[in-house]
Amino acid sequence: MYGAWPKPSPGASGGMACLELLLVEDGGLSRWLSVWFCVAALCVQVGLHADGVRFHGWHPERREILISATGEGVRQLWVVSEPMGKPRQLTFSSRPVHEAVFEPISGKWVLFAAREPKAGPQLFRVHADSEKPLPILLSDAKRPYSHALWAPNGQQVACLARSPGKEGLGLEIFNPLAPRTARRLESLPGGGWSLEHWAVNSGMMLMREEISDAESFLYLADAGTGTLSVLTPKGQSKVAHAHPRFSPGMDAVYFTSDRESEFQQLCCLDLRRGTSKVLIANLKWNVEAFAVAPNGRQMAVVVNAAGVSQLRLLDLKNGELDPVADVPRGVVRDLYWRSGSGELGFSVSASDSAGDVFSLNVANQNLTRWTRHSPKAHAAPGLGVTRAFDGEILPLVYWTPDAKRFKGRRPVLVVLPAGPGMQMRPSHLGHLAPLLEQHGIAVVGPNLRGAGGYGSRYRSLDNGRLRVHQVRDLNVILNWIRQQPGLDGERVALWGDRAGGSLALLAMAEFNAFIRCGVVNDAIPNWPEHIQNAPEWRRPALRVEFGTEWDSKTRAFLESISPLDAGGENLRAVSPTSPVLLAGASAPVIAKALRQAGKKAETVEAGELAGEAGRFLKQQLLED
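The chain above was modelled as a monomer; its predicted structure follows.
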């Protein structure tokens, strides 16, 4: 990247060695969702094994950007002062940093979040211009914190904190220059809350409460008292609302909603009149992100069209919607307008952009590239569809190796999404790229029923007992692979994380020797136990998705789709010639069950999975 990254100085991490951040694929620090507060599996539509650059916004006074990127194998914070310039490193932790934001007035400080091993996520600040930046702990290192949101005047930070016992989750506020001064404003029921936006020159904030992926509500929150006022009352039908943002004049709230629609539509709530309207009519796809320009006259909008991001500019006065040309074909995220300008920054994950940052000069439509994390592009993805047993269309994204370099039919790695509602998209392949480019292994990412991005009806097709059809969908995908002239249907491996790992194991049992091997990371061993042992606030959303585990018939069904069912039968049909590589907390117990059934299983530490999986897949798919 930029020729060479500066190497971290030995011993420079100081007291930061214990820190570890949680990677999420949505927005800035204020929208950071930790495992402590998320509700089930959010419909966070991201690419495969995303890596590379993350854009965290502009300096408030200078034309420079804040990013996180990997240096010497560890994700750190960096400042880039000019397009394609040499980055200046801000953090030197031995563990990764992911989310951060400049102080909004002078940019003197950077606020970021990190996970302390025992206490959970904590908040820190670091001097942005120091030659030897030293992070300062702002939270109490006793409770988990998330969703930190800096006041526009830079004098306060609001956040969510979860206290033990009855106190539970709460909205808190503190002075960012005075460590450990957080005070609770309001306790919050449940756990699916997020802080979204703080109005300029105001003490009002926007909050979101998620009940499930099909139902969520928006609130006004008073930063002085913590008083909440609902903006989107509960109606007769469930509605999902997201991404609330104040207009610069504080007279409206922009948000997305699927009210009376299959898709998330861009809406505007007039705060004076109390009426709302849809801003872009007849849009077939989800509006997945937007950012209002500082002048309030236009808005950058990202539309998820069959997995491909389309960046557009919306004139808020006349409603004209214009496409932005020359943006790499992939996934656009992290939209930030530079203060006092008409320059829009964003990041793109695509075959030739590993999350790299670009900026658009709206006046002349010039597109400028700021970073290049990966010196070489990998093969561009394709989009395909096939039909399921019941006629449902199954979308998929695929990457195939260069046919001139790799002769004959190529082995295939099928990657399954980590959770319900997630979507496989034409992004950068991250650590899977060497399998494609160096070893000629094709990658296929199917969007089985229940995937996000294709409307609420398609999203609901895996709810409850309908989930059993996902294995049948996967069989259709395997048949599609066999029909492709450049792909080898006899050399297929499965990769799955979390729910995708559980599905991969069931598929290996269902299709037996037709699956050459599997890579499974932190799979859910048993669904009834998973729901039953989840935090109380999280169970309702899981029950919407999977069913009520206390009902005897539902429990029997959930056992039938669990790798480790009560009777120990579900993994017996896995082929003894098809090994499984396992990582994560559930790896030991699943490996033990496989071995007792006479199957081949290896376990590795989660941090070693990327490297070990490459070795494992090459051995199983390329060596006879």
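The chain has a mean pLDDT of 89.
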